[in-house]
């Protein structure tokens, strides 16, 4: 039986499944999810070979962490069988990347997750804070959490790609282990690709989140709060309709596109039902047998998305 590929995550020694479970939907970020469905989704994911689960105290104002904690506990497997990342610095109340807040944050997250440690603690959406504070205060505080055994590896996340070079150029080598970029390696926006050689030179593992561009590349379309322009939304919708007319599903194409780049260790997909988990795992397993037909459809979809290629949306505060 085919199994999901495991990929090395930078220099961490972690081997993550190429498809990771994004748990923001468990915080009802994309609509209500019953707790039983959430738990069943995590169970299904784990048993289909997904070993990496990502959450944050921000998702659903801590709900995602709590539900993921229950779901992981109910797996009833040894702790080293799964990899968990959560985040710090972004909360319902706002952003706070101070050493005091992130140090308190990990204890709160561990309690909700019912874990003794997380594998990765990310500074969440750092473009909304002072990047100098992240370099000089937050990351050193996270190093102490690493020494205390609460965190195995440190990451940074955010939308503008420039945040990664800003931080990685200023921290001591090895103090940031991974980066999590989102919406920049999907069919409509592949701008992360140009940054990969730099990230590899810095020795950081690369996680690519949101292969469906947070719902833009799905038949159902994005949620109300999606920050894309109306033009971007309507062109993505046209691409989804084109795929449907050809008897194909744009989400399958989008996931297969993101997974093809093996320099990216993990593609994090937000999932909220057993059906979605099964569909996404089978899309990942089908890649090698589907290369030619994927290529043909990709070219057509690429042509539709051409006018909005690599267009994003503003995120964060002005930095000095
Ligand atoms: P995504 O692009 O993965 O899309 C998620 C949406 O697609 C959800 O509505 C989900 O229900 C739906 N979906 C999943 N499988 C589907 C399928 N087969 N067919 C149709 N629809 C399907 O966006 P995301 O959830 O925002 O990103 C994935 C994960 O990455 C998040 O859950 C989170 O863990 C992480 N993430 C982190 C950051 C950050 O740190 N700043 C930002 C974005 C995402």
From TrEMBL:
Name a biological process GO annotation: L-ascorbic acid biosynthetic process
Q: Which residues form the NADP-dependent oxidoreductase domain?
A: 19-288
List the Gene Ontology MF annotations in alphabetical order.
L-galactose dehydrogenase activity
Q: Do you know which Pfam families this protein is assigned to?
A: Aldo_ket_red
Name the coiled-coil region(s).
Answer: none
Under the heading InterPro entries, the entry gives: AKR, LGALDH-like, NAD(P)_OxRdtase_dom_sf, NADP_OxRdtase_dom
Q: What is this protein called?
A: NADP-dependent oxidoreductase domain-containing protein
């Amino acid at each position: 039986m085919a199994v999901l590929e495991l990929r090395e995550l930078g220099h961490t020694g972690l081997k993550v499944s190429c498809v990771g479970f994004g748990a923001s939907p468990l915080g009802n970020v994309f609509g209500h999810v019953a707790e039983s469905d959430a738990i069943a989704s995590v169970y299904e994911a784990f048993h289909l070979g997904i070993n990496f689960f990502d959450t944050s105290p921000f998702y659903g104002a801590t709900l995602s962490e709590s539900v993921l904690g229950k779901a992981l506990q109910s797996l009833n497997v040894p702790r080293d069988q799964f990899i968990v990342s959560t985040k710090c610095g972004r909360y319902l109340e706002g952003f706070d990347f101070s050493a005091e807040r992130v140090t308190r944050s990990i204890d709160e997250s561990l309690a909700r997750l019912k874990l003794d440690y997380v594998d990765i603690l990310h500074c969440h959406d750092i473009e909304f804070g002072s990047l100098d504070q992240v370099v000089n205060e937050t990351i050193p505080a996270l190093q102490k959490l690493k020494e205390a055994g609460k965190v195995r590896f440190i990451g940074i996340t955010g939308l503008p790609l420039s945040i990664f070079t800003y931080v990685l150029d200023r921290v001591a080598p090895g103090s940031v282990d991974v980066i999590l970029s989102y919406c920049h390696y999907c069919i409509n926006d592949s701008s992360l690709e140009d940054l990969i050689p730099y990230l590899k030179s810095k020795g950081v593992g690369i996680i690519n989140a949101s292969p469906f561009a947070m719902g833009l590349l799905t038949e159902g379309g994005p949620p109300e709060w999606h920050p894309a322009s109306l033009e971007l939304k309507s062109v993505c919708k046209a691409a989804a309709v084109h795929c449907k007319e050809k008897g194909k599903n744009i989400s399958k194409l989008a996931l297969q596109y993101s997974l093809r780049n093996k320099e990216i260790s993990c593609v994090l997909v937000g999932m909220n039902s057993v059906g979605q988990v099964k569909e996404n795992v089978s899309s990942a397993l089908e890649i090698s047998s589907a290369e030619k037909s994927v290529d043909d459809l990709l070219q057509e979809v690429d042509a539709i998305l051409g006018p909005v290629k690599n267009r994003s949306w503003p995120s964060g505060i002005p930095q000095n």
